[in-house]
């Protein structure tokens, strides 16, 4: 990478931040990471190992990884990638407001549809862009982050990204720019409705989605969301081979038919899991309020139009508080179908 390439900083470097930032650094970009002490210690000992489902195997020795707990590490960056969970966005924004260069571009690589706006409000005067990460990343071991599913990074189109496009391309993570990212974000949110089902199942994504009862739970949540989005005249983009409106029908198919028609949905690392299952296992608050909760908000709080998603929010919050986990598919389906 040329010496004049502006620096890239990752704010909130966990699974996504270490993977995306690590791939950029492995391809020669000047990257700094801001995150927590436990990862700083881990990476200082083991460095970074970045692998993917296509066989990529990239190592960066600890001496070559600039991972700090001090957010001042973002002060000289031309591009800041925000990769904290949604509940930490406002706080991240407050920190960045006092640090980010006036000409810094800030990209939210987070799930949900509202994080870029939260950052825009918290970091006035900076160019904040929405982004979307379609693929799954799991931490496989100390300093080891693995991309288990396919997809390219999406981002809101902006000329200010021009100096960085080459770095993402060379890292094997080309940026796909969209004039309007909102339809892409809503389409991703429809897929992320599965995070709650997956977290409540306690199983890896492949095992969960291979079982019809869990898919029927997801179909209920997606159909409800599609209806709510339709009422709000929001049209999600087509991110999967099948259009979003077909997904609930396909999800309900018996296992054998589902494997034939939508086998690609199961083409993933058998250990891949949703970020929400990671959160529950780690005892952290989840993003359910920014995913299923977004459908509840759009329908109008308490509206029967979002009953299933409201129930999923409730069940995930109960699980966060030590309530029931590892729901079998049939029990979860019954709970979501029950009127009360
Ligand atoms: N993991 C995945 O496969 C995917 C995740 N996403 C989305 O990407 C985003 C990031 O997810 P993911 O990487 O899994 O999350 P992680 O929890 O792995 O990483 C976020 C990290 O940021 C840290 N953090 C939070 N606030 C601060 C702060 N103020 N200063 C420094 N560090 C901070 C967190 O620490 P702590 O926990 O201690 O607060 C955590 O280590 C989410 O919106 C998620 O939904 C999208 C696609 C796939
Ligand atoms: C990639 C996907 C849909 C599932 O891992 C995700 O976004 C998440 O885990 O939050």
Automatic annotation (TrEMBL):
Keyword NADP: yes
Class of the enzyme per the UniProt entry, highest EC level: oxidoreductase
InterPro entries named in the record: 6-PGluconate_DH-like_C_sf (IPR008927), 6PGD_dom2 (IPR013328), ApbA (IPR003710), Ketopantoate_reductase (IPR050838), KPA_reductase (IPR013752), KPR_N (IPR013332), NAD(P)-bd_dom_sf (IPR036291)
Catalytic activity: (R)-pantoate + NADP(+) = 2-dehydropantoate + NADPH + H(+)
Gene Ontology MF annotations: 2-dehydropantoate 2-reductase activity; NADP binding
Its EC number(s): 1.1.1.169
Domain Ketopantoate reductase N-terminal per the UniProt entry, residue ranges: 8-156
Annotated Gene Ontology cellular component terms: cytoplasm
Keyword set includes NADP: yes
Entry keywords, A to Z: NADP, Oxidoreductase, Pantothenate biosynthesis
Record-annotated Ketopantoate reductase C-terminal domain positions: 182-319
Family, as annotated: Belongs to the ketopantoate reductase family.
Function: Catalyzes the NADPH-dependent reduction of ketopantoate into pantoic acid.
PANTHER family: 2-DEHYDROPANTOATE 2-REDUCTASE (PTHR43765:SF2), 2-DEHYDROPANTOATE 2-REDUCTASE-RELATED (PTHR43765)
Annotated protein name in UniProt: 2-dehydropantoate 2-reductase
Organism name: Neomesorhizobium albiziae
Phylogenetic placement of the source organism: Bacteria, Pseudomonadati, Pseudomonadota, Alphaproteobacteria, Hyphomicrobiales
